[in-house]
Amino acid sequence: MTRRHTVLIALVIASVWLITGCGTKSEPQASPQAEGIESASRVAFTLGTVAELRAYGPGAEEAVDAVVAELERLTAALDRFSPGSDVYRVNAAAGEWVRVGSETLALTRTALEIARMTDGAFDPTVAPLVDLWGFVEVPDSAPAEGQGPTALLGRRPPEDAEIRRLLPHVGYEFVEVDEAGSRVRLTDPEAELDFGAIAKGYAADRAAAVLKEHGIDSAFVNLGGDIFVVGGKPDGSPWRIAIQHPRPRGPNDFIGVVSVKDRSVVTSGDYERYFEYEGVRYTHLIDPRTGYPQQELASITVVAPTGTQADALATAVAVMGMEKGLEFLESLPDVEGLLVGVDGRMGMTSGMEKMVELRK
Ligand code: ADP
Ligand code: MG
User: Fold this and answer.
1) Which residue, 14, 143, 231, 295, could crosslink 147 as a Cys pair with Cβ 3.0–4.6 Å?
2) Ligand nearest 22 Cα, by number?
3) Does this model's pTM top 0.70?
């Protein structure tokens, strides 16, 4: 079978997308009626995740190629583990000013704004705690006993004393930005910058921007659970995004379907990156004030005009918990949320009620 045929079949079955918090699955389930329309789809491993792209309309192939190039460029700038990346150099500079690219500068500024706005529930300097807990993926490995589907370094909680030793070095107030000089520095040499909770959302925005520059007005971008949809489906109807059930009762179980156009939909959860120790689940969403993972929410979905907002806010709300999280999201214009507690309780903002169909 030729490649063209393969792509066509993929399109014909694509309509409901399953969004999995920090996961990589997205299950095509029905049809977007894209026959006769030029289209392109691509799966690429970039930004430490699986990127899944679909674009419809003239020039779709070139547009998707340009997106992949853009994602590679962003990975090179933003991955804190890549020697030479802006973030790596800022962290290695032990408090000195470091010249960074415009992406890094813009993203640092935005991350600080969101940190202030969420009163530090989202904090881009949480990295030392992430490392201490071992919520760091081990590539190409099977998960250890007690771990979720993602293989992690961590298997048990660190000593409380170690957490308390690091806490004074976690704080977004240690990050300084010099706009004119395009420089960033950490005023505490032990502090570390980490865009893990915002970079994929930002990259989804950049992907959408590149697609639009290429004249694409119908596209779907999934960066490991951070989705951005450009326009509606090729037939003009909204994209339908299925939100994975955090405790699936069978394969491809979902809690509901969100219908959106021109929006980012981001789901974070406690069911992909976690380990269990003595019957307690510890997930990768850390409360920067206590140094411990949040234990209240199993699934956090945020719908927002940009992926940057949706991604960072999903992490912030995970830390805030059900009640404060919903109140906070409700206070933001154009931002909606759907939260599921570890106890199965569900809560959503008033605007979300209008865009979601819950599964019976
Ligand atoms: P994922 O798509 O993997 O679920 P998230 O957007 O939920 O990613 O971000 C989780 C990642 O962000 C963690 O792996 C960690 O690196 C970092 N992180 C954890 N807690 C926080 C926090 N409170 N603020 C900012 N970043 C965090
Ligand atoms: Mg996030």
Assistant:
1) 143
2) 1
3) yes
CA of 200 from ligand 2 middle (Å) equals 8
Q: Where are the beta strands (DSSP E) in the chain?
A: 16-19, 39-46, 49-56, 98-99, 175-178, 183-186, 218-223, 226-230, 239-244, 254-260, 263-269, 274-277, 280-283, 297-304, 336-341, 346-348, 356-358
Per-residue pLDDT band at 17 (split at 50, 70, 90):
low
pLDDT in tens, 216-238: 999 999 999 999 999 999 999 99
Dist. CA 147–CA 134, nearest whole Å: 11
pLDDT at res. 36: 80
Instruction: Give the separation between CA 270 and CA 295, rounded to whole angstroms.
Output: 8
Number of structural domains found in the chain: 1
Identify the pLDDT of residue 20. Answer: 55
Distance 142 CA to ligand 2 centre (A): 24
Give, using CA atoms, the residue closest to atom 6 of ligand 1: 197
DSSP state, residue 225: T
pLDDT tens profile 64-108: 999 999 999 999 889 999 999 999 999 999 899 999 998 899 999
For atom 9 of ligand 1, the residue with the nearest CA is 197
Q: At what angle do helices 102-117 and 199-213 cross, to 10 degrees?
A: 130
Query: Looking at residue 284, which CATH number applies to its domain?
Result: 3.10.520.10
Residue nearest to atom 1 of ligand 1 (CA): 22
Q: In Å, how far are 1, 9, 219, 281 from 4, measured between CA atoms?
A: 8, 9, 18, 45
Q: Name which residue sits closest to atom 22 of ligand 1, judged by CA.
A: 122
How confident is the model at residue 35, as a pLDDT?
Answer: 64
The residue range of the domain holding 234 is 1-360
Rounded to the nearest angstrom, the distance between the alpha carbon of 199 and the centre of ligand 2 is 8
Ligand 1 surroundings by CB, under 6 angstroms: 21-22, 122-124, 126, 130, 135, 194, 196-197, 224-225, 268, 273, 284-286, 288, 311, 314-315, 319
What is the spatial distance between Cα 206 and Cα 248, in angstroms, rounded to a whole number? 32
pLDDT in tens, 140-198: 899 999 999 999 999 999 999 999 999 999 999 999 999 999 999 999 999 999 999 99
